[in-house]
Design brief:
Helices cover 71% and strands 2% of the residues. By secondary structure, it is an all-alpha fold. The protein has one domain: Rhomboid-like fold (Up-down Bundle). A two-stranded antiparallel ribbon has the order 1-2. A hairpin with an 8-residue loop joins strand 1 and strand 2. The radius of gyration is 17 Å and the shape is globular.
Amino acid sequence: MSINIVIIGITVIASILSFQNKELFDKLKFNAYLIKHKKQWWRFLSHSLVHADWMHLLINMFVLYSFGAIVEDTFFSLFSYKGMMYFVLLYVGGVLFSTVFDFGRHHEDPYYNAVGASGAVSAVVFSSILIFPNGSIFIFPIPFAIPSWLFGILYIIYSVYMGKRGGDNIGHYAHLWGAVYGLVFTIITLPGIISNFFSVLLN
């Protein structure tokens, strides 16, 4: 069974449950102050299971579905079942690493909260871009495919802009740091991927 599909399924179920249960939502969301002062360490991971609204959930899961299969299949084809472990490390590591910036920035602010799998999804997206430079994605209502590398750049620009704007409970800076983690993890795991990326892109 696809690990990517399992992750999507678990995230969708947890998010739907949290839409109907504010106590659950509050228990799982990222809050750096509660992590530091109340030792609620699970929030480093659990925030990725809940989302701000249906649109936030659908966008994250659509992007993960679109890009995750490429990464998972590549790892599996190269490393067999060990590749599935690499995919899990990419995703979970993206969840954790993407919160480091916000934890350092907001650990004394009890009112800052963030939710969503954006950091992990961003890690997967940028891993996919390295693996398959010629990839593309259709985004409604744009009537043509956008190159995946261009989508990645626009994704980060949007995330930084929304991170500065704030006020929506979404960890937008997590997109940026998740992307960094995804790039570094893939470069370490797949030696030669950088030279292959530029070779494919420039030909």
